[in-house]
């Protein structure tokens, strides 16, 4: 038997979208449930793939098509190519996943000079017939014959000018006949061939054109942008449908409807229509359509039927539907339906409402919302109607939008921020020492760096928008300016950044504030009841902790103590500690830091209790708290130049004072003070050079630093435990946890735990309380994964630091990879995703699974979580659920996303 490629609407399986495409499957399904669908048939996606592979239509396909055209003729009483009662069809694309407008459609196919005369006799409406003919020539010419649309438009406009009308509705039959003749001439001049008169030739050409459109640029770009892979949708079907006409007079119409409002989710029939028009007129904006509510007055019986159609569609599909319809001479036809594309607000509201209405279960409501789309609700966003073109574009590193004055250094950002000025911190790249500028800024813009660069990671943690790697902007921090082409941005110039798209705009663009609706609260409460994974937050400050708790976090899974060190009032003390020549001098500086850190932790405990707060001991290398060698050399050079200038001015003033003792001597800095500052800077420079490392990410950091300088970790441990003791005295149910970074061996953990146990006893004795503190290890090195059973004997919990673990597994320098080759790798399919955004389950994930299994074999009560960037990504959360993790910890603004993703992971898990 020959292979079957064509399925009538009466025989196709409405569930088989991979074979029939979404549009074709739904046409078959609507036919099956008794809706009034024009008869037709579907050519399968398999035929498309064979055509694209062979560059020719599959053998036997055209014979099948002719057979099914014969069935349409028998069903309708019309004849394809017949002059007496012509059958016209539409030829429409349709892939398994909806790709609106990305592929091609041809209407009114089957018209030629003979069938045109028949259509005029059949309808008694010459204007209608010529309107259909000119539409067909133009659409077929553009889609199937490659004629540029501008050629048709020019001829159309020429006739309209001669007729003295602005819109095509003002043209009569004579005008439309003239346009048709002009269009036929354009086709002949462009292609060198007359417009095809044979209707089966027209159909074959149209089928080929629709198949070809699967590989058209806009379709390919759309699939790339929305990650539509071949396993999701491969090839387009072709739907051949009997034409029905909404442009046969005032008792005919065409429209597009949604079963609910796609902008708000409100349970109402929503849409637009046009009387005496074809469907393309509604979507093309040729005429201004009317809101569907007006149909109730214009055609009340048809409106009632439309409401019934709406109810049947939503009840059957149990999903909001986006449908197209035509009214031909008072008869309503449904031409298409598909799941409606809605914004996040509408999706959430309609999910909650549809459950309350009994249409879907609570589990279906939770699965209906894409967790990633919740991000739309949690960040300020630009008003979509602003209409401005971007000045430059970078990577959308942290979502949200913000406007402010350009500032090129963190100190100035902090100064202006304190005065209430809204600023955007603009840097070539950022360092941890810029943290005070982050706190003060509305958003961050860098010309270098990727989506997981320092600026991006910190901005996401703070919930601030960030555009990174905007290479079209050349930042000169020394000159306090940036250049974009011929334009120069100076300090104080107003810009707007959109961290959701990566766009940078000149001036202020209005934003729309985020809304945490009651429906979202309800949906997330349902999610928490279903999820097995707990969702914690990465938070280092009281503001971040409060936001995390407001968004439903079950505690703090990562508090990075170095962020506290970077605060402006503490950094000088940290520098003093680093520069200390002896352990005693270093301890003196740490004694100043102890009460500051203790107060930090106490504030966090007050906000988070009774939930846990997991404190990671100091992780970054010491040089990150010092200025760079280049910066210090420039400062020393400037101070020496100032000293020389002061010397010269002082000598002149001294001579003047000898002549005139009353003359003031000025207020320059004394030479001794300048010398002392130079000496301090030179001491810093020596320390920076001493601390220099070829690869600091793999160097003297984390627990290695804590063992080398034990007094640092001892101060931090004491600060956490004393804060916990003070919290207990206040009546707080505190649950502190201490976590050791960069561990490679059980001996390191044992060394730190001995310090914890000693300080634990001392604090309990001093405060007269009983403290409960949990002790755990970060797992972010490959060796820690391999030694999980030994580490688990000492640790009560593991937390995967997947940012560093990913770097170690891939041997990638994160920022270099993102700036140089990772985009190429993901574009070409060498890697499916950026592993610093989406957890690499085959490499990093395999190590994680091994670690969980070995760790729990040694310690069955071991709690395991993740606190890397990937902890907030929905697909990564599904993997974490699958390998048995207990929690994920993510930035505060991703907590709602993670809560929903955790619920979906449990609902979708194999039983």
Task: Please describe what this structure looks like.
49% of the residues are buried. The chain folds into six domains: 158 residues, Dna Ligase, domain 1; 75 residues, Acyl-CoA Binding Protein; 90 residues, D-amino Acid Aminotransferase, Chain A, domain 1; 133 residues, Phosphohistidine domain (Glucose Oxidase, domain 1); 302 residues, TIM Barrel (Alpha-Beta Barrel); 64 residues. Helix 20 packs parallel to helix 23 and helix 35 packs across helix 36. The protein has 36 helices and 31 strands. About 1% of the residues have low confidence. The longest helix has 31 residues. The chain is α/β, with parallel strands linked by helices. The radius of gyration is 35 Å and the shape is elongated. The strands form six sheets. An eight-stranded mixed β-sheet has the order 12-22-21-14-15-16-17-13.
């Amino acid at each position: 038997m020959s292979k079957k490629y064509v399925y009538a609407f009466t025989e196709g399986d409405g569930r088989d979208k991979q074979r029939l495409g979404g549009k074709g499957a739904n046409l078959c399904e609507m036919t099956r449930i008794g809706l009034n669908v024009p008869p037709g048939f579907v050519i399968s996606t398999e035929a498309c793939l064979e055509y694209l592979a062979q560059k020719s239509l599959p053998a036997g396909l055209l014979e099948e098509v002719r057979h099914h055209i014969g069935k349409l003729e028998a069903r309708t009483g019309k004849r394809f190519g017949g002059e007496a009662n012509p059958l016209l069809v539409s030829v429409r694309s349709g892939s398994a996943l909806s790709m609106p407008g990305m592929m091609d459609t041809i209407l009114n196919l089957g018209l030629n000079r003979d069938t045109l005369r028949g259509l005029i006799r059949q309808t008694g409406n010459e204007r209608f017939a010529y309107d259909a003919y000119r539409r067909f020539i133009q659409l077929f010419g553009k889609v199937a014959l490659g004629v540029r649309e501008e050629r048709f438009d020019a001829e159309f406009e020429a006739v309209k000018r001669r007729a003295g009308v602005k819109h095509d509705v003002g043209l009569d039959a004579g005008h439309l006949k003239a346009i048709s003749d002009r269009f036929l001439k354009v086709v002949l001049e462009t292609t060198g061939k007359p417009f095809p008169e044979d209707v089966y030739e027209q159909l074959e050409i149209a089928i080929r054109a629709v198949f070809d459109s699967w590989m058209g640029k806009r379709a390919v770009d759309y699939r790339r942008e929305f990650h539509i892979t071949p396993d999701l949708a491969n090839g387009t079907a072709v739907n051949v449908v009997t034409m029905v006409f909404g442009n046969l007079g005032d008792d005919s119409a065409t429209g597009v409807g949604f079963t609910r409002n796609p902008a708000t989710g409100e349970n109402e029939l929503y849409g637009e229509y046009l009387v005496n028009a074809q469907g393309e007129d509604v979507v093309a904006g040729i005429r201004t359509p009317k809101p569907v509510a007006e149909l109730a007055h214009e055609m009340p019986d048809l409106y009632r039927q439309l409401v019934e159609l709406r109810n049947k569609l939503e009840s059957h599909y149990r999903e909001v539907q986006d449908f197209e319809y035509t009214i031909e001479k008072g008869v309503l036809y449904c031409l298409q339906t598909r799941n409606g594309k809605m914004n996040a607000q509408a999706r959430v509201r309609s999910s909650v409402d549809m459950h309350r209405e009994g249409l879907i279960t609570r589990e279906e409501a939770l699965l209906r919302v894409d967790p990633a789309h919740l991000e739309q609700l949690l960040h300020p966003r630009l008003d979509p109607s602003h209409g401005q073109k971007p000045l430059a574009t970078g990577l959308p590193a942290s979502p949200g939008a913000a406007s402010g004055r350009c500032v090129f250094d963190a100190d100035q950002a902090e100064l202006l921020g304190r005065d209430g000025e809204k600023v955007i911190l603009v840097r070539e790249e950022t360092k941890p020492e810029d943290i005070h500028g982050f706190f003060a800024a509305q958003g961050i813009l860098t010309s270098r760096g990727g989506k997981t660069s320092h600026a991006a990671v910190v901005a996401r943690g703070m919930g601030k928008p960030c555009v990174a790697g905007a290479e079209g902007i050349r930042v000169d921090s020394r000159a306090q300016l940036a250049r974009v082409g011929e334009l120069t941005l100076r300090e104080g110039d107003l810009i707007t950044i959109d961290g959701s798209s990566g766009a940078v705009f000149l001036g202020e663009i209005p934003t729309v504030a985020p809304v945490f609706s009651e429906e979202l609260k309800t949906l997330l409460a349902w999610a928490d009841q279903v999820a097995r994974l707990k969702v914690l937050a990465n938070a280092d400050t009281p503001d971040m902790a409060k936001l995390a708790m407001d968004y439903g976090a079950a505690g703090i899974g990562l508090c990075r103590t170095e962020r506290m060190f970077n605060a402006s009032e503490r950094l000088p003390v940290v520098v003093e500690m680093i520069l200390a020549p002896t352990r005693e001098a270093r301890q003196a500086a740490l004694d100043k830091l102890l009460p500051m850190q203790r107060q930090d932790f106490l504030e966090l405990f007050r906000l988070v209790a009774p939930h846990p707060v997991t404190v990671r001991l100091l992780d970054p290398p010491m040089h990150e708290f010092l200025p760079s060698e280049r910066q210090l050399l420039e400062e020393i050079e400037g101070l020496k130049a100032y000293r020389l200038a002061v010397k010269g001015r002082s000598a002149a003033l001294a001579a003047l004072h000898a002549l005139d003792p009353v003359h003031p001597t000025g207020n320059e800095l004394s030479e001794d003070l300048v010398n002392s500052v130079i000496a301090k800077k030179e001491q810093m420079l020596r320390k920076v050079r001493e601390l220099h490392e070829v690869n600091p990410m793999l160097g003297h950091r984390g627990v290695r630093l804590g063992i080398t300088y034990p007094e640092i970790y001892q101060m931090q441990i004491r600060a956490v435990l004393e804060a916990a003791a003070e919290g207990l005295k206040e009546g707080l149910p505190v649950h502190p946890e201490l976590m050791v970074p960069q561990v490679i061996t059980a001996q390191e953990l044992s060394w730190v735990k001995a310090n914890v146990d000693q300080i634990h006893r001392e604090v309990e004795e001093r405060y007269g309380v009983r403290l409960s503190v949990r002790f755990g290890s970060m797992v972010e090195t490959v060796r820690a994964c391999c030694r999980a059973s030994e580490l688990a004997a000492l640790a009560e919990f593991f937390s995967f630091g997947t940012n560093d673990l990913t770097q170690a597994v891939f041997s990638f320098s994160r920022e270099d990879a993102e700036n140089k080759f990772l985009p190429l790798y993901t574009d070409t399919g060498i890697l499916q995703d950026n592993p610093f955004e989406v957890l690499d389950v085959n490499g990093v994930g395999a190590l994680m699974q091994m670690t969980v299994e070995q760790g729990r074999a040694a310690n069955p009560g071991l709690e395991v979580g993740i606190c890397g960037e990937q902890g907030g990504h929905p697909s990564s959360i599904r993997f974490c659920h699958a390998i048995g993790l207990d929690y994920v910890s993510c930035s505060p603004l991703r907590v709602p996303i993670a809560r929903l993703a955790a619920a979906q992971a449990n609902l979708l898990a194999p039983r």
